[in-house]
Amino acid sequence: MRRAGALLAAAGLAALAMTGSAAAPAGAASTAAAARTPGVWGWGSNNYGQVGNGTYGELPTPVTVTMPGPVAQLAAGSEDSAAVLTDGRLATWGGAFYCLLGSGASAPERSVPTVLPGLTGMVQAAIGLDHVLALGSAGTVWSWGTNAFGQLGNGTTSSVSCPGPVPVPVPGLTGITQVSAGLNFSLARKSDGTVWAGGRERQGPAG
After folding, report:
1. pLDDT tier, 181 (very low <50, low <70, confident <90, very high otherwise)
2. Which of 75, 131, 154, 169 has a CA that sits 20 to 30 A from residue 116's CA?
3. pTM
4. CA distance 108 to 135
5. How far apart (Å, rounded) are the C-alpha atoms in residues 68 and 164?
6. Is the pLDDT of residue 73 over 60?
7. Radius of gyration in angstroms for the set of CA atoms belonging to the chain, rounded to a whole number
8. Which pLDDT score is estimated for 201?
9. How far is Cα 161 from Cα 166, in angstroms, rounded to an integer?
10. pLDDT value at 177 more than 60
């Protein structure tokens, strides 16, 4: 059974509102927050290594997570996690279902943060149930994972075969300033204030 996700926090969490730190959108049954320092702590469900300290299994108390560089923003999903580094690189770790780690493979899972090669200039990451969004500094959005409801924004609802999916730009989507990933849908806010949506429309989440 797939379990609820890990909780992530960075240095200064207790004083987050006073430090000017960037807060990440909450993942499924999890939360994330980041200060602009390399210090990250994690705790909670860790069956797939999603806490990121190199171990597996429940972690009821916070542990230090070694990051590959200073962190600008964190995102926590139900079984995987991501961090945008201050130099624009993106690190992922946890379960590899539907190629969620962005490596193009469904295995192995990773219990430590690992930088994705070839993906630079990132400013934000968001994790849905089984898909991931990454926002680039140029206003473009990259997506990967499952696409059963069109949540990747590529104009199809084609089933995703894995190995295979790697981060690819969402076609026709430019000028984006913020992204958010729900369970099976995605949202992107443009610089003109409009919000673009895609994915499952049950109960109206896709607008």
Report:
1. very high
2. 154
3. 0.82
4. 25
5. 25
6. yes
7. 16
8. 64
9. 11
10. yes
Confidence of residue 12 (pLDDT cuts 50, 70, 90): very low
CA 100 to CA 31: how far, in whole Å? 18
Rounded to the nearest 5°, which phi and psi values hold at 97?
Answer: -55, 140
Q: Which position has the token pair 């999916």?
A: 165
Q: Where do the DSSP E strands lie in the chain?
A: 6-10, 22-23, 33-34, 40-44, 59-65, 71-76, 80-85, 90-94, 110-115, 122-127, 131-136, 141-145, 168-169, 176-181, 185-190, 195-199
Look up residue 154 and give its amino acid.
N
Residue type, 33: A
Alpha-carbon gap, residue 25 to 31, rounded angstroms: 7
Q: Is 114 helix (H, G, I), strand (E, B) or coil?
A: strand
Question: Which residues, in sequence order, are CB contacts of 95 under 8 Å at separation 6+?
Answer: 2, 48, 49, 50, 79, 80, 101, 109
Go through 106-145 and write b for each residue having 16 or more CB atoms within 10 A of its CB, e for each that does not.
beebbbbbbbbeebeebbbbbbbbbbbbbbbeeebbbbbb
Residue 44 phi, psi (nearest 5): 110, -150
* Residue pLDDT, tens place only, 110-153: 999 999 988 999 999 999 989 999 999 999 999 999 899 999 99
Query: Which pLDDT score, from 0 to 100, does residue 5 have?
Result: 54
Give the Å distances, CA to CA, from 205 to 10, 149, 187: 30, 12, 9
CB 107 within 8 A of CB 96: yes
